[in-house]
């Protein structure tokens, strides 16, 4: 898939792809532009692991509980989620609209001896190939998507019957504006300035409706929040950020 073709897909916002592609060289620096992602990745991994174990009836005590599953990380960046999925035993594919991110992801996976299939391709184009996956992760991506209907329809086509899709995204609330935009981007600068457009954030009800419209069955959201002295945790507070699982019957 050529970069131009990926950039021209309905779901791809070329400006967003260029913005995040410019950060590729710093993606794996835990104190760099992606510092916030490094802080929340362990919480993401634990939550997604637990959800997949429960959904597929896997061995929670196994070091590689996802062995035998095909997983797709949509909007993979430089591989912060794809690599843990691979270490948990899944056969992982990662896709991203920015070729710079894919180059960085491949280099990092190769250095770590991880066999991950990375592609610069849009979800619609991958779905057209007929390939399907047991587990799809889509983390902090939907708020950057251009053609949402095409995007969610493609996710549904890519998910096998009986499969599980895991999303995370900021909620559109006053609290999320204060924390994500004003706080993280402008005050403590843990997120690159201009990375988010608050108007494009999804409320849980909006995301649920979009997933249902695509033919998926969403579960109740689980909040991702931060507490002094405890760091990031998953709980009932969805006011800033949340996870949502969706199944395909």
Q: Which helices and strands occur, and which strands form pairs?
A:
Elements: H1 3-7, H2 14-21, H3 35-56, E1 70-74, H4 82-87, E2 91-95, H5 99-111, E3 117-119, H6 123-128, E4 133-139, H7 148-158, E5 159-170, H8 174-187, H9 204-213, E6 217-218, E7 222-227, E8 231-235, E9 241-247
Parallel strand pairs: 1-2, 1-4, 2-3, 4-5
Antiparallel strand pairs: 5-9, 6-9, 7-8, 7-9
Q: Your description of this structure?
A:
The chain is 38% helix and 21% strand. By secondary structure, the protein is α/β, with parallel strands linked by helices. The protein has a single domain, classed as Rossmann fold, CATH 3.40.50.150. Strands 1, 2, 3, 4, 5, 6, 7, 8 and 9 form a nine-stranded mixed beta sheet that branches. The longest helix has 22 residues, at 35-56. It is globular and about 40 Å long. The chain starts with a helix and ends with a strand. 45% of the residues are buried.
Task: List the main descriptive attributes of the protein structure presented here.
single chain; 249 residues; alpha/beta; Rossmann fold
Stretches with pLDDT under 50, minimum 5 residues:
1-5, 185-190
Please indicate the count of domains. Answer: 1
Main β-sheet, in a few words? 9 strands, mixed
Based on DSSP secondary structure assignment, what is the total number of beta strands? 9
CATH topology: Rossmann fold
Helix-and-strand structural type: alpha/beta
The helical percent reads 25-40%
What radius of gyration results from the CA coordinates? 17 Å
How would you state the average pLDDT, rounded? 87
Q: Output the CATH homologous superfamily.
A: Vaccinia Virus protein VP39
